[in-house]
Design goal:
Elements lengths: L5 H7 L9 H16 L2 H6 L14 H20 L7 H22 L16 H8 L5 H12 L1 H18 L5 H16 L9 H4 L7 H37 L12 H13 L5 H17 L1
């Protein structure tokens, strides 16, 4: 655990004479390892070679397993008595508890039913990875191709999630869906040979034989043409025929099923306060009045 300057410890208050953060340290280490296991993008960026070939799994089964695991971490957190911790330990315990509760609440609202927004979503994932994935060896290239080949399962899972959103009325506004649909059509119609998802292969070191680099590129082209493009076309069809007709007309999150409670949670989550949406709004108006008076 990171050391805290003595002055800060004294300012925070008295530390128990026999403070023991060992159990909390183990818990935090276990949680961090678990978090990486659930996030192949972050794990890959941190050097996990196996993760470089995988895409996220946001299926209901995976989310159910996450809920169980996070509840177990929450129980372990509660079992650690804060009075037995150092000052920093108490802060870390409180922050971990808050983090776990935030994740559990997100899962309880089943936010996976809304897998895209106006500026983000699963359909952007591969494009983001194309710009950030390391490409230093043929193994890196094969891992990237494996991600491209995993696109059908990834898209099918997220379309199924969005379909649950349609059935339950948990959808994006029509204006957002129209934007996403336009972009999805562009992606599905883009020429394969000039697809930006081939860019990582261009970063392969020059010392790799040209014949091998060309073969790897051919494999990537085949994955985009035969795996990704059909998945993207299915997403376009789904948005146009199923999602758009059921998109909500109101922009406000409050208009969603259980929208008042969901919106209140979103506000609390984004502001990290206990204030309700109306209080946040009033605070904003007060700040505007104060600025105008100066």
């Amino acid at each position: 655990m990171r050391l805290v300057p003595l002055a800060l410890v004294l300012a925070l208050g008295a530390t128990p004479a026999l403070a023991d953060d060992a159990a909390l340290d183990r818990l935090i280490a276990d949680y961090e390892l678990y978090s990486l296991s659930q996030n192949p993008i972050e794990a890959g960026q941190q050097g996990d070679r196996d993760a470089l070939s995988r895409l996220p799994d946001n299926s209901p089964a995976a989310d159910a397993a996450r809920t169980a695991a996070l509840k177990a971490f929450a129980a372990r957190t509660e079992a650690i008595a804060p009075g037995e911790l150092s000052d920093e330990g108490r802060i870390n315990r409180e922050f971990l508890g808050w983090t776990l509760e935030r994740q559990l609440q997100s899962l309880a609202f089943d936010e996976a039913r809304m897998p895209f927004s106006s500026d983000s979503g699963f359909h952007w994932t591969l494009g983001y990875l194309a710009a950030s994935t390391p490409m230093r060896s043929p193994a890196d290239a094969r891992a990237w191709i494996a991600r491209l080949e995993a696109a059908p399962t990834y898209y099918a899972t997220e379309i199924a999630n969005a379909r649950r959103g349609v059935k339950s009325g948990f959808t994006q506004p029509r204006s957002t869906v129209e934007q996403v649909l336009a972009r999805a059509r562009e992606q599905a119609a883009a020429p394969v040979e000039s697809d930006p998802l081939l860019a990582p292969l261009e970063r392969l070191p020059a010392e790799i034989p040209a014949v091998e680099r060309a073969a790897l590129r051919d494999q990537a082209v085949a994955a985009i043409r035969d795996k990704l493009r059909p998945a993207q076309a299915q997403f376009v069809t789904f948005l146009h025929t199923e999602y758009l007709p059921k998109a909500r007309k109101n922009l406000a999150a409050r208009s969603l099923p259980d929208g008042e409670r969901y919106y209140a949670w979103l506000v609390a989550d984004h502001t990290t306060t206990a204030l309700n949406p109306d209080q946040i709004h009033q605070n904003g108006l007060a700040e505007l009045r104060a600025s105008a008076a100066r």
